[in-house]
Amino acid sequence: MARGLRKVRPQLSSAYISKWLRVLSNMSAGFLIIGTGTLVSLLLYQGMFYSQRISPMTQDRWSPLFQSCVLNSSGFVLGSCDPDEVASTGAIPWTSVGTQLARDLQRSESSEAPVYVATCVIGGYNGTSWANLMFLVGEHGFPKCKPMGKQVILGMASLETVGTDDFPLGAFLLSTFADARPVRPVQIATVNGVVTVIQSTVKTIIAPNGSTFAAPWEQRNYVTSVNSLNRLFLMRLWLVAHYLDISSLTDTLDGYSVGSHTGMTVAFGWDHSHTVDHYMLLLAFQVLICFVSLGLLSNDGVITLEGLSGLLKNKPVLTYDILASLERRKLLLVSLVCTFFFSPLYADAIRYTYAETGYHYWYLALLMVAVMMALSWMALLTSLQSVPVPKIWRNRPLCYSAPVFIYCTILFFVIYEGSFDSGKVESEAMWSHAQGTLGLVIHGQTRSSGAYTMTGMTPVIYLLMPDLVVCMLLAWGVSIAAHKWHVGYAILDTSWTSHNEFVNQLSKPQWVTSLNLDHKNTISIGSKLFCKPSLLVLLGYCIIRDKGVDATAATTNLYHPASSHHSSTHDKVETASYVVTTTKEGTTASRLGTTLYAAAQPPPHSSPNRLKTEFIVISIYDLVAALLPWIRRLVYSPHQFGTITTNKFLVTKSHTRLHEKANYTYSRGDCCG
Fold first, then answer.
1. Alpha-carbon distance 344 to 623, whole Å?
2. Does residue 327 belong to any structural domain of this protein?
């Protein structure tokens, strides 16, 4: 007796493994949707849609340029500056820079001697496309750009460029810390803590013709934008030059400068800020579309969890691949594309914040971009079915494996981008993709210094697109080859569908398909072909039955799925009076000892209750609504597509709906012809 009660272990056949892979693949679709919503929440928490951080550019990051300019109350002493210094802006703007610097430092014409101005540069080295000039003003000699220890100065100034509505082609921006002026410190809360900046900074815009205009202390430059999707969700970037109080950092620095009168330890720095327009609307849409996608996917989830439960208990199960059936689930396909629609914007936000926190999420963003493009390609191929097909190509669509295509696209793209650390590369080169206008000439080369056109910078999706398209096309080729290797052909013959009443009701794929519509997946009895329940679900429909019907009535089927421990390339499933045999050549049914009628008459000893078992065929989108009576009572009652009785499919009238008061349950159902 113990031997009879012993549980039979499943055989690790290819069919059994395939069932597990299909179940896990279906579950991964839900995980991707949940992961997208989680990622967006993390991005919001990490400040990916709005951030403000201040980075001090201490003097250990400067490079010496010249020690030649002498400044008096009128400006630079004529002929004192090196010609290369003058060439950085041109003679006329350079003269205005000297004049304005003297005003900012409050140099008196009557009582004060000339002072000395050292010119330094931030950036401007090999491999960088940007630079700005720094001026250090000393009373008794030229200050050092990289001092050792404490260095006393009269002032510090930066020279950059700026683009505004008044100066779309750019102008120069002079920002001056004058030690002779009263210091007004103000604290700014940023993502890296509270930073003390000097509000008494004097800022002046100097036009290329030498005219000067006062600017507010929070004057922005490096202003640009990224249009990843559309202007509703425009990502705006800008910098603000500040002078920072770094008294608390002196112990960590080799050298620094302090004001001769105020004694304040000062350093130049940039306030980096960005924001995404209407990002709360974006977040609301993302949350909504995730719920919609999960709601649509929940119907398949019921069948997938039923299959998972059967596999764990080693019972007969119905498994199928959601990804392969997306061309028959157009609403779900569109919803999934919309779920990942904002991934290019997330990639740009992560690129901008890569150095701080973005590197944690870069490859997740690449995965989302790859999924979006793969699903979009599938949607395009699905739309192709509406194009009339030539007669010679009718009923002969090209086949590919949708799961292989999607997973290979992700794998190829992420691995390739990771091979050269694309996140770091794109982050460092980000500003080079914005079109500059006016720059500074440093070491004979024009460097971007903060003035950019209003057209914005190139979105990262444009830069990644060539790699992504190559990976996607390669993955599609692999998916076609994988399908041919698995089933032995790449061109599918769908002419058999006219011999099955259920499949004949549906539109057939014409040009290309991921559906496994091989006649080998049917059961043939004479000239009639019977559609298996798994094929029915693949085509976007499912089977339910009334709970009031005797459960045992559902056990008399023309085809009964083999339990997982009997699955193989040659399955044999016996009923009371006939044998169903599945081989690589197809599935046939033969009667034991007598002729089997094409109508698949049940055994003569079957009970009347078994003869009239009726299965109801509904759209896969209506499964959850059919199983929950309160939805049928309060929201809507799903339409009934057809019925299956003794393996015969009958189309119901279009207005036929499920009974509101009935209790339905999901069923693997029956074959139908």
1. 34
2. yes
Quick check: 598 pLDDT over 70? Answer: no
**Is the separation of the CB atoms in 394 and 508 below 8 Å?**
no
Q: Percent of the chain, pLDDT > 70? A: 87
The number of distinct structural domains making up the chain is: 3
In this structure, the answer to whether residues 449 and 545 fall within a common structural domain is: no
Mean pLDDT of all residues in 301-309: 82
Give which of 595, 561, 598 is closest to 578, Cα–Cα. Answer: 595
500 is a domain residue: no
DSSP 197-241: EETT-EEEEE-TTS-EEEE-TT-EEEEEEE-SS-GGG-EEEEEEE
State which of 495, 528, 563 marks the end of a domain.
Answer: 495
- Contact between residue 662 and residue 638 where contact means Cβ atoms under 8 Å apart: no
Residues 84-133 pLDDT 10s: 999 999 999 999 999 999 999 988 766 578 999 999 999 987 667 899 99
Domain containing residue 482: 17-46+280-495
- Let me know whether 306 and 438 are in one domain: yes
Q: Is the pLDDT of residue 558 over 50?
A: no
572-593 mean pLDDT: 38
pLDDT of residue 385 exceeding 70, the answer is yes
Q: Report the chain's C-alpha Rg in angstroms.
A: 36
Let me know whether 554 and 583 are in one domain: yes
Check: CB of residue 401 under 8 Å from CB of residue 512: no
Task: Note whether 533 and 567 are same-domain residues.
Answer: yes
- Per-residue tokens: 309: 């439960």
Q: If you search the block for the tokens 């989302």, which residue do you land on? A: 368
